[in-house]
Amino acid sequence: MLNRIGGSTIAEAKERLTHREVLDWIAYREKYGTLDQNRRMERHFALLTHLTSRIAGGKMDLSDFMVYSQAQVTISLEEAMATWQ
User: Fold this and answer.
1) Taking burial as the number of CB atoms within 10 A of a residue's CB, which of 2, 17, 71, 74 is the most buried?
2) DSSP secondary structure string, the chain?
């Protein structure tokens, strides 16, 4: 759970972390972003790719290079069935 902050499970974290520590971790996440190393690496590589693209004259946004951080697109059942045919 949360990169093992407070323990391996929610129950362990509730037992080990004080309310103040939880607030400190929330403040840390708001300031520095996610604790997930994969998402942090994705952002770094996306930034590098975005800058390289801009130098080469590209018009793409940073979010275009962040595949796993993009919002999920929701479609209706009818739209899904139409794509399967």
Assistant:
1) 17
2) -GGGTT-SSHHHHHHH--HHHHHHHHHHHHHH--S-HHHHHHHHHHHHHHHHHHHTT----GGGG-GGGSPPPP--HHHHHHHH-
